[in-house]
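Narrative summary of target 7.
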Amino acid sequence: MAPRSSKVLRETDIKKRYSLPTGFLSSLPSFNGGRAVDFQAVDGSGRVWPFRCSIRKNGHPKPVISKGWRAFVDSKGLKVGDKVRFYKKKNEAGAKKHAYEIRAEKEIKIFGAGFGYAPII
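Modeled conformation, tokenized:
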């Protein structure tokens, strides 16, 4: 299952909101003419995280996750340089509702140099 969004976190992602690529919008439930949509993602421990993705009123949509995002960041102890990936999958019942998975990865540094990433459960 390929990630729909994979990103190395920046300061804004840690302190305020998570900016998504515009292409991620097609994997979300319909906005139904609105500017925000709620969805849930499950992490590696099975915890369900409620999120809200919103877009700008005019111009480029610039999707961001704000509601629920800081709770996730704080719970996982994420810092600048760590990585987050969102995955989309069909639920087991085959219904039209989508299920999302979120994975956080800590940056591994050895002697101050980035060495890779390790999953956070």
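The chain has a mean pLDDT of 84.
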